[in-house]
């Protein structure tokens, strides 16, 4: 269940990051045209990292990359202030998915043991 819930969070986070990258490219590009493309590519790279992390959730590297994506999303708020909201919301969803998913996995394993399976 942990993989499923974490994958859902990352799956919904990716398009939000794409739109955030477009917002940064448009808004900050008007002020700093020299770095406009950088804002766009960093955001798109972060969205791609969400997809890769979701695909790798069966391995430990997927969870580690998922945590890295959450911290990187929060770090984007240093350049694009509204991204703090996105980072906090998806960070909280990620923590809930990991904690509650593990609890659900433990309960399922205990149930299977009790049933003799």
Based on Cα principal axes, name the global outline: elongated
Q: Give the % helix.
A: over 70%
Unreliable spans: none
Mean pLDDT: 93
H/E topology pattern: HHHH
Structural class determined from secondary elements:
mainly alpha
Beta-strand level of the residues, as a percent range? under 5%
Largest beta sheet, briefly?
none
- Number of helices, where a helix is a run of at least 4 consecutive DSSP H or I residues: 4
Gap between N and C termini: 18 Å
Tell me the Rg in angstroms.
17 Å
Quaternary form: single chain
In total, the number of strands is 0
Structure description:
With 117 residues, the protein is mostly helical. The chain has helices at 2-31, 36-55, 60-75, 83-114. The model has no long low-confidence stretch (mean pLDDT 93). The protein is elongated. Helix 1 runs antiparallel to helix 2 (36-55) and helix 2 runs antiparallel to helix 3 (60-75). The longest helix has 32 residues, at 83-114.
Question: Topology of this structure?
Answer:
Layout: H1 2-31, H2 36-55, H3 60-75, H4 83-114
Summary, kept brief:
This protein has 117 residues and is mostly helical. Helix content is 84%, strand content 0%. The chain contains 4 helices and no strands.
Key structural traits:
elongated; single chain; about 120 residues; mainly alpha
């Amino acid at each position: 269940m942990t993989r499923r819930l974490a994958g859902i969070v990352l799956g919904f986070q990716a398009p939000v990051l794409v739109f955030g990258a477009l917002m940064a490219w448009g808004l900050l590009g008007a002020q700093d045209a020299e770095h406009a493309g950088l804002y766009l590519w960093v955001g798109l790279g972060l969205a791609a990292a969400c997809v890769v992390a979701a695909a790798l959730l069966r391995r430990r590297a997927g969870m580690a990359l998922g945590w890295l994506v959450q911290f990187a999303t929060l770090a984007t708020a240093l350049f694009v202030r509204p991204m703090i909201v996105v980072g906090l919301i998806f960070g909280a969803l990620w923590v809930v998915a990991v904690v509650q998913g593990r609890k659900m996995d433990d309960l399922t394993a205990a149930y299977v043991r009790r049933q003799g399976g």
